[in-house]
Amino acid sequence: MKEFSKILHYARPYTKNIVLAFLCLALTSVITLILPLIVRNMINAVVVQNNVEALNSLTFDLVVIITFQMVFGVTTNYILGFVGNRITADFRMEFFGHIQKLSLSFFHSRRVGEILSRMGNDITVIQKALVTIPVAVFRQTITLLGGLAIIIYLNWKLTGLILLILPPLMLFARVFGKRLKDLSAQVQDRLANATVVLEEMVSSIKVVKSYTREPYEQKRFEEGIEDAFDAEVKKVKISAAFGPFILFLTFLVSTALVWYGGRQVMLGATTPGELAAFFLYAIIIAGPIGTFVRLYTQIQEALGAIRRVYEIMDLKPIVQQPENPVVLDRIEGRIDFDHVTFGYSPERPVIEDVTLSIHPGERVALVGPSGAGKSTLIQLLHRFFDVNQGAIRVDGHDVRELDLTAYLKQVALVPQETHLFGGTVRENILYGKLDATEEELQRAAKTANAEAFIRNLEKGYDTIVGEKGVKLSGGERQRVAIARAMLKDPRILVLDEATSSLDTQSEHLISEALEQLMKGRTTFIIAHRLSTVHNADKIVVLEKGRVVEVGTHTELMEKEGLYYHLYTLRLFDDAPLTLEEET
Ligand SMILES: Nc1ncnc2c1ncn2[C@@H]1O[C@H](COP(=O)(O)OP(=O)(O)OP(=O)(O)O)[C@@H](O)[C@H]1O
Known about the structure:
It contains 21 helices and ten strands. By secondary structure, it is α/β, with parallel strands linked by helices. Helix 2 packs antiparallel against helix 3 and helix 3 runs antiparallel to helix 5. The chain is elongated and about 120 Å long. Its EC number is 3.6.3.-. GO terms for molecular function: ABC-type oligopeptide transporter activity; ATP binding; ATP hydrolysis activity.
């Protein structure tokens, strides 16, 4: 039940609405309990008293009461439907916000589809439970207790007969409830597996199509769905027995009631109206008994879903904002890596004892073989992860002491793979500064050499770029990303150079744009091109997580170390060509 209280605090803002709904619910249930008494009086008015006036007045009462019942019913349903959906919406938004706050290591260890499945399938299960369970428990408790009190008062002997139904039902609930809960967890897990396949297929559709792996993906998805279906069928087998089993017991007890009650009427021990009322009450309280059995399994199901969602909600970001953060309003741009050691798992360091000093405004090229740790170093600079040993200092402050938001506001990354969002060109550029003016926006686009091509698009800045920017060319996407970074106006800039070559004109436009972007900012470049390395103030050569050389191009060439070898082995994309051109 601890799980339910976690969810229920989301209901607090709607306490007034909920109280009103439950008041209406209580009234509806009380009316349900009164109805058979009126019916009893009506039958007795006809059969025993033969009194037309009494019959008319009772009929009028009945119509009034059932009208009220309908009004209360509609009010309850509306309010609870509204609140249930509101709570789920609030919860989904909080879940989203929470996931965004989690450290990068979380995203590396979970598959996207799994997160989507928790957000979708599990929260839907919780939503259903949120409305149905409290309502059912409340309504059925009133009906059951009230009904029992009345029938005991009416005829305690007949009540004993009805209560015979309880032991077999409770046994049934206990035996199958646990099984249903386990199966439910299985269904959700298997659905999550299928969602993972769906998400991967959609996001890698080009690879899927070019390798014509549609049948393979289909099979993977079908396996996931069939697995979920198998578990679902096992669940259905048990839950299918519920309704008919309860109905069977109800009819059995009813038959006994009619037989025994009929004899009592014949003996004059009770009136026909009383027997009819009793019969109605029996049906009314059989309902809650059956519902409680079903509810038990529903509650188990919901508890499973809540637990699965809270597995994520209870995670704390590994990278924490400091208690008394230092807010750097304007970073100068001095960066020191001081004996930094880091491993994604601490026992396997991928950065070892790295010490570097970078002056404000310096242009630093990071080079080294694949897997040397260049990207990792940049991730540490962003504080996506915390170092295991040593420290990274910005303007003399350990990044772990900085206000993370204020700090990252002044850091911009232009990644290798340009990530655009599916909206318009304007929205994509404004991502760098949401409140930028039209003039700032256009200036950024112009400096990024993007203005001309944007003007030529069908709707200019308001052209939709398609999922991840597919409707733009690679070079155009990069220039939009440069404009975005330009608008952010960062103090520290990170360029992860694209490895794939662009045509000469596009290359030229981009180099020019980047040149503008780098002006006056401390810049790190994960370099794959000779031109960038040449122009760097400092080249840092990494190998197996260690800094092996630092210097300018000329210094490092003279040294004939790793840089010289990388260079002469043509490990830079355009090394031989540009070298010849430049010498
Ligand atoms: N999320 C991760 N979890 C575990 N290990 C990782 C993770 N990311 C990178 N690594 C490992 O860390 C090492 C350094 O990787 P990194 O991406 O920093 O290299 P790189 O120099 O940027 O390589 P490249 O030029 O190929 O991009 C590699 O051995 C890599 O396998």
